[in-house]
């Protein structure tokens, strides 16, 4: 069951004419600047578990789906434009994908609106059958797990095994979880005053626009569509322009699972065009966005400027991870390390402000730098590699610029600090110590493999400093003292607090931000509220009795 | 006949093909399905009874023995409880399993049952006598839906954090109760098994189940599927046996934490007593009924006649929720009676493996004789026999669809549960009168009202003392909706979210904190 490591049977199901062939693998293994970062040699796989039990990427994977998915059909863009999709590990062009713009969004909204009409198959369907469709979709994702994980690694540069074991597992579990909710979204009957009978219906909101980021493309896709569909909405989803490929494969599976036409529409495109068209659309009832805080503000404004569509936002973070001296040090170092470096540091959850208690500070910094230095960079498809490339040149440049600011503002560079492997998008795992709260690297979201370690002395001080940010997404606390754990977890202004763990997420558990980290919650039962309108029906009756 | 149930059972959209059945698509059954399992299922293994005894299970359509089945008694119950207790041990694989994986196991069980729909339906019909078309398109699909529904709850059964006064942090954990004894009846063998297993397993309990001695075969086949899909040993144990021996051993066991029983009110009393004289195990009961079905003069006549027929005659009348007191408003009484008699006379009684058959045999000779006795009492006490009233075949336990008119509230057939194809039609004048008469029974399981008037519908549905009220429909079951009785009809609710409560202990954990903040 959980974490079963057997490779799923790869069945080629949805055949369509293959487009551009994506070349994979053959990354040149030019020695990096950082001598500790050895290229992985699969024959010396000391880090990698036994090869036979490990899933392997699909070799020479062909990209099958490159068009816009509307009304369960593949469409070319109205403008005739396409956009290039690159493999960030090699810079190679993987394929070109149809680029959606305003006109395509209009088409998709029409289709989603028709699918949502009163009396439509989707509206008349038993809730349990909506759940069954989501379960079927989960089964199909499980069947195509290797292909999707390979596609994800190629398109986003994330480690293949992470894509397989983390992203795809979470995708399947999310779909199953919400499959189960579909017929459990219960209204209430309410004992109102007077001779009335009152009940509530939890109705779907309608056409939902969803805009997702490039850091967990397929998982974010599932997080968005699963609760929306389980509540009975229809969806127009725009994947990130950097990573549209797994979303398009999912579109094919959605059709195969048997969702009626128009229920899910997938539109690859850019934010300022397609994304903006969704956010401003007068016939979209709700928008959900995951991405930067800067764009989150635009989305909220667009909703205000247009039809007051409901808005949920999952935005940035600058998450404190607080390590007390009484914790298990080695474990805390390891958790803080993976809490930051996971997914090339490209997590809104990244624990990017590590507050370490004075008495263990030096030891913690030393061990953290050691860990960072031992990270293996390279081809994300190869087992044993821990860190792939950043997603694109823009992110790469931004991260390096912030690293430079850290050096300039006086933080101590413990390791890393520059690019790795010339002419690529890799960045050395970087650790800064002696970081002070006013430095840019302590205030701005870096979204890269750059760890900031700060020193603190008292509980009250660290609570105050941890909260001194306009973000409020996640936080970690490491301590064996139950009082400290409960005090700090109550005091932190963050949507998730992890005690003696980090990034411990599950589909049952709500996820979202305080303050400028967002609005609303995803996952768990809480997410259902974001996709339902409550209707109170009151009926006059002749005589009320308890 | 099956319209209501079918329309709930068959998804209306073509997108969902695998779970779709239509009458035309029902495969031709084998009337002699092979029996694969006839032993006790303990700890995921097949075992003979400690006593080595066995009992025959009978095909009620012919009266012939299908096979011998191992007969569990007290010693076997002890073995099963030990296995269930071990599976429930703190730190066991079952206790440590992610809730979502418990759900996945239940989903897989549903998939396996769906895969074997045709075989299970054949076996059910052979052992119980219900028409194959019904087994195939009602019982088995409802089993699949019930298990899928409960599967979804496994990781959604949430405790709370509670803002108590003082410097404390307080939360609840919803923990499984432990080893649950479950005793199920013969009228819906597969479905009752699913109703019992679904919530118990979704919430993490272990189970010792005794199946009815009349109908042990499908439950044992499902046991093999439970093992196949990967439930750990000891989580589910299935014991065919008799009530006074195996059933009593479960109800009186000192190491069974909870007992759930579906069956007669008479035995329900015994179960509750046994709990009181042993370890105060939690008790839930789904018992008998004498459910009123009220037809107002403004109802759609054709629909009301058909639904009332279905409400009583479905499953050979062997339903605890059967609409066995049909109250008809005086102005439409004669027409309703005439049409109901016509409908009953056209009811097809016969070989349950024949696709045209609407009504098979009663489950066994004891029930058969008991029902004939009630029919005699109806005649004796002055009710007017409108049709039927006798045996319908020269072998097997078939009874003619029977209707009594001019039934008075004091007659035995208006007070006692007949559990057979015998319909009582009573006349009433006013709303207030009918509510009072409908409630004048020790039972309170189900009720229905047929009317177009929204006020009457609300008045009656509020006024009736029953766990389920159907308005302009009857026998509408969904795994999502709770089911259970007021008064002597039972204790607790099955299905829906409510069903989970009966398999949960709530633990309140309170932690002292240095300082509380909102």
> Can you summarize the main beta sheet of chain A?
7 strands, mixed
What is the helix content of chain A? 25-40%
Overall residue-averaged pLDDT value of chain B: 95
* Spatial separation of the terminal alpha carbons of chain A: 47 Å
Report the strand count of chain A.
22
Spatial ordering of strands, largest sheet of chain A: 14-17-18-13-12-19-20
**Morphology call of chain B:** globular
Strand proportion of chain A, as a percent range, falls in 15-25%
Largest sheet of chain B: 7 strands, mixed
| Secondary structural class of chain A | alpha/beta
Which oligomeric state applies?
heterodimer
Shape of chain A: globular
Number of helices of chain B: 17
Rg of chain A over CA atoms, rounded to whole Å, is 24 Å
Enzyme class (chain A): oxidoreductase
Region (Disordered) (chain A): 1-56
Domain Aldehyde dehydrogenase (chain A): 74-537
Keywords (chain A): NAD, Oxidoreductase
Describe this structure in words.
- The complex is a heterodimer of chains A (546) and B (518).
- Chain A has helices at 102-115, 121-124, 127-143, 145-156, 160-181, 217-230, 245-257, 271-280, 293-305, 329-341, 361-373, 393-408, 440-443, 459-467, 482-491, 526-529, and strands at 68-70, 73-75, 82-86, 93-98, 189-190, 196-204, 207-211, 234-238, 264-266, 286-290, 310-314, 320-323, 353-357, 412-415, 419-420, 426-427, 430-433, 450-456, 474-478, 496-499, 518-519, 532-540.
- In chain A, helix 10 (329-341) packs across helix 11 (361-373).
- In chain A, the strands form 6 sheets. Chain A has a 7-stranded mixed sheet with strand order 14-17-18-13-12-19-20, sandwiched between helices.
- The longest helix of chain A has 22 residues, at 160-181.
- By secondary structure, chain A is α/β, with parallel strands linked by helices.
- Chain A is globular, with a radius of gyration of 24 Å.
- Residues 1-51 of chain A have low confidence and may be disordered.
- Helix content of chain A is 34%, strand content 18%.
- Chain B is an alpha/beta fold.
- Chain B has 17 helices and 20 strands.
- Chain B has helices at 3-9, 74-87, 93-96, 99-115, 117-128, 132-153, 189-202, 217-229, 243-252, 265-277, 301-313, 333-345, 365-380, 412-415, 431-439, 454-463, 498-501, and strands at residues 40-42, 45-47, 54-59, 64-70, 161-162, 168-176, 179-183, 206-211, 236-240, 258-262, 282-286, 292-295, 325-329, 384-387, 402-405, 422-428, 446-450, 468-471, 490-491, 504-512.
- In chain B, the strands form 5 sheets. In chain B, strands 14-15-16-13-12-17-18 form a 7-stranded mixed sheet, sandwiched between helices. Chain B has a 6-stranded mixed sheet with strand order 9-8-7-10-11-19, sandwiched between helices.
- In chain B, strand 12, helix 11 (301-313) and strand 13 form a beta-alpha-beta unit.
- The longest helix of chain B has 22 residues, at 132-153.
- Chain B is globular.
- The N and C termini of chain B lie far apart (58 Å).
- The model of chain B is unreliable at 1-23 (pLDDT under 50).
- The A-B interface holds A 1-2, 121, 124-129, 131-133, 135, 173, 176-177, 179-184, 186, 197, 258-260, 482-483, 486-487, 490-491, 507-508, 525, 539, 541-545 and B 11-13, 15-17, 19, 97-101, 103-105, 107, 145, 148-149, 151-156, 158, 169, 230, 454-455, 458-459, 462-463, 478-480, 497, 511, 513-517.
- Chain A: Keywords: NAD, Oxidoreductase.
- Chain A: This is aldehyde dehydrogenase (NAD(+)).
- Chain A: The active site is at residue 314.
- Chain A: Residues 1-36 have a biased composition (Polar residues).
- Chain A: Its EC number is 1.2.1.3.
